[in-house]
Write a structure and sequence with these properties.
The structure holds two protein chains of two kinds. Chain A is an alpha+beta fold. Chain A has helices at residues 11-20, 59-78, 96-109, 119-125, 147-160, 204-210, 280-293, 336-353, 379-388, 404-412, 420-427, 440-451, and strands at 2-7, 27-30, 47-48, 82-83, 87-91, 114-118, 135-139, 143-145, 164-166, 171-177, 180-185, 190-198, 218-228, 239-242, 252-255, 261-264, 268-269, 302-313, 319-323, 326-330, 395-397, 402-403, 470-471. Chain A is globular. The chains are: A alpha+beta, B alpha/beta.
């Protein structure tokens, strides 16, 4: 019997797990996919929003502003890259009133460090912007963070503190019992828990239905992105938004913490909760809209394109509530990443008030070793490590300079990388400009070795994402 | 660990090995080859098909055989090499930083450096194909590595996008291993591969080559289940009405090779926009004195024999540089008309016979390759056919160079 089961290991579920794992209780995290961070967390804008977008008085505004305040400390504690690169909401002359309205809303939401700026200053700050732009809102607290890194680190931190992660656990039914809930997985596994957190992203309405308490619907909103080579990571220093529309904050141009340039997202509401395909229309929209704000973007340096699904709730706001021991966290669309630490703090408060949590563990570990610590070491420090383990001297991913030691560590560290893409998200191995051309066969070999499975059983991202069908030579 | 060496060669593939052997034979002894893989040979190790060495050895070898001949030459001369060693940085004053499991991170102060890092395949991301992102999409070279080195089958029903040589070779290879190759789609109206590969790898196996076709959408959630292809118009835009679905589990990409010049850039060496490699003179010297480049890192070759030939030039030139023999005196830029896409070298700095390699931008028939010094024609060579997939050469003699009046030589294709 678990005290708390968390359904969905995205950044919201991960942050909740991390916050609750401080306490001396039994926690499990149930994830349908082969790895954590596989839903909206895997593919979003990676922005820590300052908090001027959401309408005053909403949960979005509240959690956004609080989350933005918390993020730097949370990222540092979990060893996740975070950069306060500031953000700009830019507008043409005819959009001046809207830019000013956003500024006022930001003030009402309690956002610090907001300033309206004019064309000249805008051009000095960001020389690559469209010269036609005439005004902007500068948000000094705007920042960037890597969402899946944050999620992996938070789940890892929770696991280091005893939480159990069950992957491939696709919740297909929830039975209410007297002393808790029976949660059933499609593969036959069943777990029992006293309390339940529903952080199932685009599926949070389905999970809510299973608990017999669903008064909302989630509509997935597709968002397509393009990622440019690291050569272009300095094309803009700040995150550039245009004045928002009712479908969201529009197409942004932003550097990433890893030094790439990110363009996107588009916004199309769909029914299919799994449709993450990219479309020619998406490319065209990104091309047109990004070029409105930033001039001469080097589109020939695109190294990959991808699509994520935002879980847009039918209420227009985040759905954060507790009933009969079930905490529902639904409709956590943008600014969900920013809000995640604040939502986790709030959920911690709910359970504290209910008296579920008890004391903080004696052996609680608050921090986590940075995922990319090796690359930040000095030559001497690296050599110390290589002397102990030569695998840290063998570069596997040439483009990103990732060593065999780091990849093996990702396979052995919580939450363990178990497929090709999960190694990529943890180490950046295979994420560079060759996109895994050289290193993927080597990484497949390392996963097989470390996990004691056959080479041909290593997948790209679990399930039927087979890489090799069968062995052709030697013992079959 | 910090060491010095007369000559550091980055890359132990065919280019690096040929350059090392040539430098050794020109009297240089303090050589160090740094190779990132587990053995010498570079990409030839996975090219188990034949057709290598026809020019060089006058016989048909497989890739590993060709590489092994050079490895033996390196070993016979006791030229030092370090394996599993990745170079991370080179500086303008020729300090090489590298890493491996035995020595850790270390620096080498080199008198001269030869860049021989080879090239890599253009990945899918660069293509922006619509649809899903399932397993089953590989560059042809990655699939080649799985099949030929690891011994696994990455696909059973295959569509290949791009008719570069590796794609053509892999069409045959996958077929021989039991896969069904449904089609090779080529965006251009002609193939970028060698004519002999189209004959031996596609036609001999009845694999259709669909020119002016591209993949417009990838289908499948976990593994590829099919692709939609379409014909393209003269502006290379897909024609919607011509869309057709092909069921397959694998999409291989053979859409071009890119010289791997990250290190070259780290030393601030200027690159040629067309070749993607360094700008060099006839000795294969880059803009930094004592830093040379050769092989596929300089420009993508279609035959390894030419890689060896070019790398010997770089090896001998590095030897001359180390011995203090400099041969300058001229500063001639080679310019092109667009039909000639590029030349290597891009500059001539000495009066000696220079073989100029170049590629054309389209298929041209019954033309002349013309080299001019201002108005005067130095070379006028008739060709029945020139094609982008086949590298061309012309020789500019020492005499011609001696008598050049201007400071440019223009290369053109004329009818």
């Amino acid at each position: 019997m678990y005290d708390i089961a968390i359904i969905g290991a995205g950044v919201v579920g991960g942050m909740v797990a991390s916050a609750l794992s401080k306490y001396d209780i039994k926690i499990c995290i149930l994830e349908k996919q082969n790895d954590v961070a596989m839903g909206a967390t895997r593919a979003n804008s990676a922005i820590v929003h300052a908090g001027f977008d959401a309408k005053e008085g909403t949960l979005k505004a509240r959690f956004n502003v609080r989350g933005s305040e918390m993020m730097e400390e949370v990222a540092a504690r979990l060893g996740v890259k975070y950069k306060r690169n500031q953000s700009l909401v830019v507008g043409f002359e005819h959009e001046r009133a809207e830019v000013e309205a956003i500024y006022k809303r930001g003030l009402k939401n309690g956002v610090k460090g907001l300033r309206l700026i004019e064309k000249e200053e805008l051009q000095t700050l960001e020389p690559n912007l469209n010269p036609e732009l005439s005004c902007a809102l500068l948000a000094e607290t705007g920042a960037i963070v890597c969402p899946y890194e944050l999620c992996i680190a938070s789940v890892g931190n929770a696991m280091d503190n005893g939480a159990e992660l069950m992957t491939g656990f696709e919740v297909c039914g929830i039975d209410t019992e007297e002393d808790g809930y029976l949660i059933k997985s499609a593969d036959g596994r069943v777990i029992k828990t006293k309390y339940l957190v529903n952080s199932a992203g685009v599926y949070s309405d389905r999970i809510a239905e299973m608990t017999g308490d669903c008064d909302f619907k989630i509509t997935p909103r597709r968002g397509e992105y393009m990622l440019l080579d690291k050569e272009c990571g300095n094309f803009t220093e700040r995150t550039i938004f245009h004045t928002p529309t009712k479908m969201g904050k529009g197409i942004l141009v932003s550097p990433t913490v890893d030094g790439n340039l990110l363009l996107g997202p588009t916004a199309t509401d769909i029914e299919d909760k799994e449709d993450t395909s990219v479309t020619p229309e998406g490319f065209a929209t990104i091309f047109a809209k990004a070029s409105d704000n930033v001039a001469n973007i080097p589109f020939n340096k695109v190294i990959t394109s991808f699509c994520g699904l935002r879980s847009v709730g039918s209420t227009g706001d985040f759905i954060v509530k507790e009933r009969n021991g079930v905490v529902t966290l639904g409709g956590i669309e943008s600014p969900g990443l920013t809000s995640a630490p604040a939502i986790a703090e709030y959920v911690e408060g709910i359970f504290k008030d209910k008296g579920v949590l008890g004391n903080i563990k004696a052996d609680y570990v608050a921090t986590r070793k940075p995922a990319h610590y090796f690359s930040t070491l000095s030559m001497e420090e690296k050599n110390e490590i290589i002397k102990k383990d030569p695998a840290y001297g063998r570069i596997v991913c040439r483009c990103e300079g990732i060593t065999e030691g780091e990849i093996v560590e990702a396979i052995r560290t919580n939450p363990p990388a178990c497929d090709l893409d999960s190694v990529k998200r943890r180490t950046r191995g295979g994420m560079g400009r060759c996109q895994g051309g050289f290193c993927s066969p080597i990484v497949v070999g390392l996963i097989a070795r470390e996990r004691g499975i056959k080479f041909e059983d290593v997948t790209k991202f679990g399930g039927g994402s087979i890489i090799n069908y069968y062995k052709t030579k030697g013992d079959k | 660990m910090s060491v010095k060496a007369d000559l550091v060669i980055i890359g132990g593939g065919p280019a690096g090995m040929s350059a090392a052997v040539a430098a050794y034979d020109a009297g240089i002894r303090d050589i160090l080859i740094l190779e990132r893989d587990t053995s010498l040979g570079g990409i030839l190790r996975q090219c188990i098909h034949n057709g290598f060495g026809l020019h060089r050895f006058k016989e048909e070898l497989t890739g590993p055989e060709y590489a092994y001949r050079y490895e033996l030459m390196v070993r016979e001369r006791n030229i030092p090499f370090k394996l599993n060693t990745m170079v991370l940085d080179i500086t303008q004053d020729k300090v090489v930083t590298a890493i491996n499991g035995e020595d850790g991170l270390f620096e080498i102060e080199a008198k001269s450096i030869i860049l021989a890092m080879g090239c890599r395949e253009r990945p899918k991301g660069a293509l922006n194909i619509s649809g899903t992102r399932p397993a089953g999409i590989f560059t042809a070279g990655t699939a080649q590595r799985f099949v030929n080195m690891d011994g696994y089958m990455p696909g059973k029903k295959v569509v290949i996008l791009g008719s570069g040589d590796i794609g053509l070779i892999m069409a045959r290879r996958m077929t021989l291993e039991g896969a069904k190759v449904e089609a090779v789609c080529e965006l251009m109206p002609y193939s970028g591969g060698l004519a002999r590969n189209i004959e031996q790898c596609l036609n001999d196996f009845n694999i259709p080559l669909m020119l002016s076709h591209t993949v417009v959408e990838i289908h499948g959630k976990e593994r590829v289940t099919g692709v939609t292809i379409a014909r393209v118009d003269e502006n290379r835009r897909p024609i919607y009405e011509s869309r057709q679905y092909i069921e397959c589990d694998t999409l291989l990409l053979s859409v071009g090779l890119l010289p791997e010049n990250e290190l070259t850039k780290s030393a601030d060496i200027s690159l040629d926009r067309i070749t993607g490699g360094a700008i060099v003179d006839q000795s294969r010297q880059t803009k930094i004195e004592g830093v040379f480049a050769c092989g596929n890192v300089l420009h993508v070759h279609d035959l390894v024999d030419y890689v060896s030939e070019e790398s010997e030039i770089a090896g001998r030139s590095a030897a001359d540089y180390i011995k203090g023999k400099t041969t300058t005196g001229k500063d001639i830029s080679l310019i092109t008309d667009g039909k000639v896409r590029y030349t290597v070298p891009q500059k001539i700095s000495a009066e000696e016979n220079v073989t100029v390699y170049f590629r054309v931008s389209d298929i041209y028939r019954n033309v002349r390759i013309v080299v001019r010094d201002g108005e005067s024609i130095l070379v006028n060579k008739k060709k029945q056919k020139v094609a982008p997939g086949e590298m061309e050469t012309v020789t500019i003699t020492a005499d011609m160079i001696k008598n050049i009046k201007g400071n440019t030589l223009s290369f053109s294709i004329e009818s």
